[in-house]
Amino acid sequence: MIYVVATLTVKPETRAEFIAGATACIKETRKEAGNIAYDLHESVTDPTKMVFVEQWENAEALVPHRGTEHMKAFGRIAVKCMSAPPKIEVITPAKVDVR
User: Fold this and answer.
1) What values do phi and psi take at 39, rounded to 5?
2) Is residue 2 within 8 Å of residue 56, measured between CB atoms?
3) Is residue 96, in this structure, part of any structural domain at all?
């Protein structure tokens, strides 16, 4: 299992456009093979900070995701709305013994 955490900074005046585009993308991404969760979060201290938290069965599931039409459409919207490059991290659960 892997997670993707993508932090984006949006221009205040494009926030509604960004959220509308993200909503459409989220709806379609949740239907993709290998997707477990795909959610958008917003900072409670900075309304321009938006964070996608994604959960996938494996890294291979991300390959087709990146080329989907809904991702391409959202990418065209996001690039207009962002005020800085996104920060994207792919992470895996740490192996910890919590017994």
Assistant:
1) -130, 150
2) yes
3) no
